[in-house]
Structure to design on (549 residues):
RNA sequence: GCGCCUGUAGCUCAAUCGGAUAGAGCAACGGAUUUCUAAUCCGUAGGUUGCAGGUUCGAUUCCUGCCAGGCGCGCCA
């Protein structure tokens, strides 16, 4: 039993409460705190009085040194030596599994990124991919069997436009696509008659015309390859690519229409489109209809998306979506519910804005993710050059991409962010700061030259800096639990930043290699445990560490 | 117009389902290196948590109204 559990056990016995909510008190007031407000009504006393009463009833044990009333709070002081021994031994034993919970394997499908194959991704798209990759890594860390899916929107008006724009071009590369896409959008805006050609292309495609299919496939392949290469560079990988067009070729979209027909909610409107009536689904919209086909019976995205989600078949799945999809997702969910099918748990994020306004691939007002990566890489190379003779490109990438990932994941997903080139920092609350703490520990480990010994005198770890680190380390599992509950990366980001900061303090004030043998061994163990936990946290964010910086 | 999200220090962001004195970083200023890596550390300064009410022992957090930004509201995806 750890001290936290023992405190909860004692409190439950004394108070008869079913749930005990412990807090971490401000510095110096103890290790755990129990706020007594909840008991004020049942005991008909002031929380201040209750705290005092309870303090007298807490029995000191091996783990709990004392309980002290401070205003309406009951603060607990625990035996730090036992905590240190408990937590450090656990970290050494569990290594890169430390912090994860033990449980039976459960399959979860996570769909993320899924961007239109029309051009190189802009930085806003990175938010989807990074958030999705974080969720994948977090759940894998927790022992889930995760399958990562990428839905390739290889069909539809946008792609048809691109195909049209590429009509008279000889050889097209990934880098040509963005300009091609912008130009065809401009062209169609100026001469709307051209739009007809786009719909003709789609009609031919859906009829299965092989030549048209090939034209689409060629463009989509170039695009998807280029996009995936960029994400691959960021170490974001996918287990399966699901092509939207497959749902047409397998006639699954037709099946969906048939199924919907049985519900009596599907009708053909005055313009001969198939429309799903969603009036009974309690959706916050004026006219709750989901249009599934065009008048020429070619499919619209919601129809193909429905077929895709029915096909996912997993009992549990998660999907990362931009906030523009919020209402649409409610519609999709309602349609799935109507068919008796499960829907995924959505995770939404807000858009990245530019100082010059909103981002738009169509209008070419955007910052490309690859340009941001290049900029970060160049900065990383310069920083390394200032410190070392030769630049290891692998290291430069770790730093650059670590900084990018950290800066994007740092912001809570539902907030808008305004992109700025100046935002890329390597100092302070950044990825490189955490990596630097790890590199410092690695450096000490190299100079120590001996194996880490866990048979140490734990009572030697008693400075504020050491206690702070031990306290933080013992909180890691809670942090993981909390971030799994919310699927938000900020919780882990804050934690590892605090831990790295705590280590920097410790590093300045508590010399390791110069300490006496016993203390040296103890601090060495502590430092290597800090490194382990930092690495565990970073690995969930997809950030790598370095031997030297 | 209606619905959802956001608004915290000059800037970028935190704040673990309502808790103790709202915390960091950047920028500014002042300090620390004969020392395990200065991508570091310490200090100073910086706040009516958009505004106005309300709920309660207690509100950045919950409710109402207003203001500002984002997103959405039938043949884009």
């Amino acid at each position: 039993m750890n001290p936290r559990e023992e405190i909860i056990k004692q409190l439950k016995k004394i108070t008869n409460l079913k749930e005990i909510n412990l807090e971490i008190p401000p510095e110096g007031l103890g290790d755990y705190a129990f706020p007594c407000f909840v008991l004020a009504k049942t005991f008909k006393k002031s929380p201040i009085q209750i705290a005092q009463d309870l303090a007298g009833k807490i029995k000191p044990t091996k783990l709990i040194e004392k309980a002290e009333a401070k205003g309406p709070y009951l603060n607990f002081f625990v035996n730090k030596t036992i905590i240190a021994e408990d937590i450090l031994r656990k970290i050494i034993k569990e290594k890169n599994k430390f912090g994860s919970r033990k449980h039976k394997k459960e399959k979860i499908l996570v769909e993320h990124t899924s961007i239109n194959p029309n051009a190189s991704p802009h930085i806003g798209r990175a938010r989807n991919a990074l958030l999705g990759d974080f969720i994948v890594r977090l759940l894998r860390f927790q022992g889930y069997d995760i399958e990562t899916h990428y839905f390739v929107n290889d069909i539809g008006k946008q792609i048809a436009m691109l195909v049209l724009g590429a009509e008279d071009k000889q050889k097209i590369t990934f880098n040509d696509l963005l300009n091609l896409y912008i130009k065809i959008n401009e062209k169609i805006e100026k001469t709307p008659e051209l739009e007809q050609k786009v719909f003709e292309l789609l009609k031919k495609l859906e009829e299965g015309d092989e030549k048209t299919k090939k034209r689409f496939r060629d463009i989509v392949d170039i695009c998807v390859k280029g996009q995936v290469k960029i994400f691959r560079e960021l170490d974001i990988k996918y287990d399966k690519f699901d092509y939207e067009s497959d749902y047409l070729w397998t006639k699954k979209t037709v099946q969906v229409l048939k199924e919907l027909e049985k519900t009596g909610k599907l009708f053909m409107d005055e313009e001969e489109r198939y429309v799903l009536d969603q009036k009974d689904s309690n959706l916050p919209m004026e006219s709750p209809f989901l249009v599934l086909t065009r008048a020429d019976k070619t499919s619209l995205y919601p129809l193909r998306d429905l077929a895709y989600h029915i096909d996912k078949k997993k009992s549990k799945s998660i999907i990362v979506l931009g906030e523009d999809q919020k209402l649409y997702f409610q519609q999709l969910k309602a349609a799935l519910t109507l068919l008796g099918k499960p829907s995924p748990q959505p995770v939404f994020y807000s858009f990245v804005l530019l100082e010059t306004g909103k981002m738009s691939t169509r209008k070419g007002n955007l910052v490309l993710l690859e340009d941001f990566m290049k900029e970060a890489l160049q900065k990383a190379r310069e920083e390394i050059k200032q410190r070392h003779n030769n630049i290891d490109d692998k290291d430069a990438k770790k730093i650059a991409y670590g900084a990018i990932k950290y800066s994007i994941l740092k912001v809570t997903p539902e907030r808008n962010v305004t992109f700025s080139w100046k935002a890329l920092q390597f100092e302070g609350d950044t990825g490189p700061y955490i990596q630097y703490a790890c590199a410092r520990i690695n450096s000490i480990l190299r100079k120590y030259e001996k194996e880490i010994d866990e048979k140490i005198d734990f009572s030697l770890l008693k400075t504020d800096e050491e206690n702070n680190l031990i306290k933080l380390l013992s909180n890691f599992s809670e942090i993981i639990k909390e971030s799994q509950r919310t699927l938000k990366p900020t919780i882990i980001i804050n934690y590892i930043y605090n831990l790295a900061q705590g280590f920097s303090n410790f590093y300045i004030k508590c010399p390791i290699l110069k300490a006496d043998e016993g203390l040296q061994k103890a601090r060495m163990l502590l430092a290597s445990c800090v490194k382990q936990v930092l690495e565990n946290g970073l690995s969930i964010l997809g950030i790598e560490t370095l031997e030297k910086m």
